[in-house]
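FIELD: query
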Amino acid sequence: MDQYLEMISAHMEDIPLSGEPKNLYEPVAYSLENGGKRIRPLMTLLACDMFGGDVKAAIYPAIGMELFHNFTLMHDDIMDNAPLRRNQPAVHAKWGINTAILSGDALFALAGKYVSNVPDRMLRPIFDLYHKTVIEVCEGQQYDMDFESKESVSTDEYIDMIRLKTAVLPAACLKAGAIIAAASVEDQEKIYRYGEFIGIAFQLRDDWLDVFGDASLVGKQTGGDIIANKKTWLYIQAMEMGNERQRHTLTEAFNNMISDNNEKVGVVKDIYDRLGISDMAQENMRTYYARAFDHLEDIIVPEARKVNLKELARGLFDRKK
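FIELD: result
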């Protein structure tokens, strides 16, 4: 995996971002230099490798998927009014909203350019996969915003929202690697489903870290989802389990009736603690990881070829940020 991460980093560094106008390209370069674990492009290369494909042929769509991911982060931060990204000022906080929107658009176009850099025979399935993923991510983001003003959200609705907003992208990254490796349609679907369940578990972990993680490691504002009135799995579960007084307090908090953000986060977290939401959330994550591994086990390739994907999944489950 280290070798593939080095390959990804080398290609990321070669992306031409020093053009004019400076205020268009500098924010793009900043967003890419600002870190990230490069998990999604790594998934593309690992899937390609698992199916015995030419990893070098998969590097450009892998980079393209990572660029699209960074584009979504840039625009998400604007919509969420999030001041930090990876412990650094978000692009819109540093350059302003208008520049962040425009630079994000340029990054989106660049993503499409990289994704399309594949042999002609693979262009149609890769581009169909990419565009399907882009549309589904937008659908997920809209559901996420709709939920902020919706009176109640069910667990099933929330899981489907994060499937669209978060999980379909790693699933597509894995499937892209399988397509490049000329894996069977059945195996492409299995690796996609593996990615979906890993992605759902990843987002559930992200929700948990937002409230219960170490802010210095997470790199984002503690309780940012609570401040933004995001009805995450933790909130939905608390509303289902809480008594009348607790549900009333949660409703007040998520209707902005507590003006001080620190107080708001503290009140909500106290209810989560009393209900044992943290432990339940972690058990739910384990369930989705187990379902992911079931799909990986159904793929008939030598077990040694699955080791890296299994190791990567375990690392995502145990992550602190």
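FIELD: remark
The chain has 16 helices and two strands.
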